[in-house]
Write a structure and sequence with these properties.
Chains A, B: This is FAD-binding oxidoreductase. Chains A, B: Belongs to the FAD-binding oxidoreductase/transferase type 4 family. Chains A, B: Keywords: FAD, Flavoprotein. Chains A, B: InterPro entries: Alkyl-DHAP_Synthase (IPR025650), FAD-bd_oxidored_4_C (IPR004113), FAD-bd_PCMH (IPR016166), FAD-bd_PCMH-like_sf (IPR036318), FAD-bd_PCMH_sub2 (IPR016169), FAD-linked_Oxase-like_C (IPR016164), Oxid_FAD_bind_N (IPR006094), Vanillyl_alc_oxidase_C-sub2 (IPR016171). Two copies of one chain form a homodimer. Chain A is an alpha+beta fold and 524 residues long. The first copy, chain A, is 35% helix and 20% strand. In chain A, the strands form four sheets. A seven-stranded antiparallel β-sheet of chain A has the order 15-12-14-13-17-18-16, sandwiched between helices. A five-stranded antiparallel β-sheet of chain A has the order 5-6-10-8-9. In chain A, strands 1-2-4-3 form a four-stranded mixed β-sheet. In chain A, a hairpin with a 2-residue loop joins strand 8 and strand 9.
């Protein structure tokens, strides 16, 4: 059985020669015998309960197929891939259940609660923080609740610019349905091709156009959620109000631990008539970051705004299409590459571009023209494919991200870099970019590549823990848009405190008293 | 004892003659004997507990003074004023406690929990939905927790554009402290002169510049809260993240029921160099509303954007300075008046103004020049003073507000107007404006004026209930920015459902197990 790879096989390719020269290659991880030999464990769930599930959601909606269960095992973090490559499929669900409606989900939860079956909501399967690997102890078995049948445009209100989407819709499917009406959502995370609407909401995703279109949670107007304690509908009356706490914000980021999101109502926008992406060069990461800050604080953000640090600019990861082709030595520009993108009507793009160009020029940036921007746009979803190729030749590659206030950016950058380099040792490349900005702060997204060595998983877990500790010690957030899952759970308490954790537990008890929903995720 | 009036006595004046002609005046409500004769009830709280409070927060921080207790009784809704004018001071707190620090508040809550004393956080006292009139039953007494001593600029991070403010700071005080650093918050609700930072956060306030600067909850980056179960600090690590549910949004709008907000960290901005306000005329409320929608959906919002309906335009309440002066007959323009305001740097104001002017002209608006805008700006905080003068001459005047999606605006407008006119009968004036807009919807703010009659309070409560029912039946939100308090509590369930209410109760149990915090507020 070949290792699970990212995405569409026709998009994947062998590792470009240029990359081989950039990293120290040791072990071909894909050839471990385990990956080829180990089968999915047999379902633990008693046959009677499987029959019961069939009675609840229908015969066809209950799938025991080994291949599907294998593909519903864990997510797409490098540890997930390494475990799979090492033949460890111990987190495979016992059964995949594919409900067709909110009512199906509600009925499934009632049955699962009664029979103490753990339920793991599954959207696109692109989780990178262990959100699909539940604790099994104390449960009769684990159901992967695959939302792939709930993929419709439920409602559209063009006057109010809102659309209600099924949670199983993947990014391109949602955009295609909206495009039929001349509309779009505008949420393009790197996982766009495969991640789902429900997953975006459950994990507070943030996309590559967040400067212009906002984080996914900020796009959400309404939610419908099935919980073991009953249905919740929120945001159906108004965009915002003063009707007490905003409970939408409890379910956004709840990672399947409070309920299963069955409908998401989002703000939509007209399809942009114009899309222009360009490059800017900055003498340093700090100079480029200061320029981003000036734009954000001046309410002058373009649609896309990204900045690679010196290392990332040098190896050209900012342009994943070009990696290995036009390699490091080919980069004349040096310094730090910023990608600036404008989308909208011709007049709005022209006005914004004029104002941003003026500001960036004043701030010391040098325009590089459209070519770097177009190259970035062409390769914007390619990095995970590249990761598979790197793993194939024994390179350990993984990403992590964080967010903090502008005044803390440099300290955080230095601390995380040092933690990763310290943990992984000589020959480790640590690259970084800023891809999400706010008036008050920005994210930092790190990519690490190093020789895998004999125990790549253990090496990475140690490095990741060191990075997490450095993030907390720097006073930053443990995750900007990858969510908590099980991997970050141990570091959540510094974010929200003991009382905050107690509140999450109280909400969990109220909504999921038996604790069947994605057990072990999110809550420390 | 004279009735409690709004604000600074030097700003109040007799009712302009023009207004007397517009409304049917009957009873001089201010002259009821009760208002002059009834004293504040004696404190119920046993002397031993008062001594205990002194031991906890200091001798000087515990105030039994009748006048202060009277001024800490209820808020500033018309029912609050009518009860006061009728001599009903039954909701007076037993004692006013004025803590000086977060630690004081934490200690006070511990003592109050131990001795079952109800605690009502008090900021500016401008609540209009019964948020300061707690249930007393089952408590040893009621403490008004006056935050007026916690009025400092706790911290400023000019690089990140954040400021941490004490909860007792009133609007102008907060702005003055920030202005020393060339910064501002930009939150200007009608209660601006007296309302407090903590109150803005606890009630999800929204100001007259919300089009440009956003709702108060959207300005909040961080919160520090004292709860009976301990301290909560949120938002200290980053502007936004994916660390699970956003618990800030549980405390925003919690109206003192979950904890006492002791620090608020907000996004700040540079003081605007330019402020320009102007008027636009629209042939109808619908035409003006459609134009607002186009601006919001085109991401082309000015700083201030308001639209009065035909009635409000006619009696000139959109220009409170002019009411009675340039009265209805004086209005040549007719149709509906829109106020459009621009604030910022000269270049940003010029660019935005050019784009908005172009859009509004294309959409059918007629520019009225700066005069109506300047007049609005000069009188923007005057309406509550006018209300006192109207009550003096027997006119019942009150406001209520709601919010919905754009496609539901007309239906909501018609339904609420009909409900108010139906309940209050002939001779009732119902005015409306839109003062807060979103890409997906807008608020509707109604002002009602009618002859008070023999039982003005009972008449209003009946009309308010009818309006609430109409709002719920229309599928809109029961409040956009006035909060739930006790007045809207009976209508919260349709907003968030039974499960949503159960979640609020679960959070309340966790944070305030004895239920001492503002009992009876918010949660149905």
């Amino acid at each position: 059985m070949p290792p699970t790879r990212w995405g569409d096989p026709t998009h994947a390719g062998p590792l470009p020669d240029g990359v081989r020269d950039l990293v120290g290659l040791v072990l071909p991880l894909s050839d471990t015998p385990a990956a080829a030999e180990v089968a999915v464990p047999a379902p633990h769930l008693p046959a009677g309960l499987i029959d019961g599930l069939r009675a609840v959601v229908g015969e066809d909606a209950v799938v025991l197929d080994d291949d599907l269960r294998r593909r519903r095992t864990r997510g797409k973090s490098t540890p997930d891939l390494l475990r799979q490559r090492a033949g460890d499929l111990s987190d495979a669900p016992d059964v995949v259940v594919r409900p067709g409606s909110h009512e199906d989900v509600q009925a499934l939860l009632a049955y699962a609660q009664e029979h103490r079956i753990a339920v793991v909501p599954f959207g696109g399967g692109t989780a990178v923080t262990g959100g699909l690997a539940p604790d099994r102890e104390g449960f009769a078995g684990v159901v992967s609740l695959d939302l792939g049948r709930m993929r419709s445009l439920v409602a559209l209100d063009p006057v109010s610019s809102t659309a209600t989407l099924g949670p199983g819709l993947r990014g391109p499917e949602a955009e295609a349905l909206l495009a039929e009406h001349g509309l779009m959502l505008g949420h393009y995370p790197q996982s766009f091709e495969f991640a789902s609407i429900g997953g975006f909401a459950a994990t507070r995703s943030s996309g590559q156009s967040s400067a212009g279109y906002g984080r996914f949670d900020a796009m959400v107007v309404g939610l419908r959620v099935a919980t073991p304690s009953g249905e919740v509908r929120l945001g159906g009356t108004a965009p915002s109000n003063a009707c007490g706490p905003d409970l939408r914000e409890l379910f956004l980021g709840s990672e399947g631990a409070f309920g299963v999101i069955t409908e998401v109502t989002v703000r939509v926008r007209p399809l942009p008539e114009v899309k222009e992406y360009e490059g800017w060069q900055w003498p340093s990461f700090a100079a480029g970051a200061d320029a981003m800050r000036a734009l954000a604080q001046g309410d002058l953000l373009p649609t896309v705004l990204r900045l690679s640090d010196e290392n990332e600019t040098a190896i050209n990861l900012a342009r994943p299409d070009a990696i290995g082709g036009a390699a490091a030595s080919d980069q004349g520009a040096g310094g730090c590459l910023m990608i600036v993108g404008y989308e909208g009507t011709p007049s709005a793009v022209a006005a914004k571009k004029a104002a941003v160009t003026d500001a960036l020029t004043r701030l010391g940036g040098s325009p590089l023209g459209a070519e770097p921007g177009e190259a970035w746009a062409a390769g914007r979803y390619n990095a995970p494919y590249l990761r598979d190729s790197l793993l194939d030749v024994g390179v350990l590659v993984e990403t992590l991200e964080t967010v903090t206030f502008w005044s803390n950016r440099e300290r955080l950058y230095t601390a995380v870099k040092a933690a990763l380099e310290g943990a992984l040792g000589e020959g480790t490349m640590v690259l970084c970019h800023i891809s999400h900005v706010y008036a008050t702060g920005c994210s930092l997204y790190f990519t690490v590549a190093t020789a895998g060595g004999e125990q790549p998983l253990e090496r990475w877990l140690k490095a990741k823990a060191a990075a997490n500790d450095a993030i907390v010690a720097s006073g930053a957030s443990i995750t900007h848009h990858h969510a908590v899952g099980t991997d970050h759970r141990g570091w959540l308490t510094p974010e929200i405190g003991d009382v905050g954790v107690a509140v999450l537990r109280a909400v969990k008890r109220e909504l999921d008293p038996v604790g069947i929903l994605n057990p072990g995720v999110l809550i420390p």
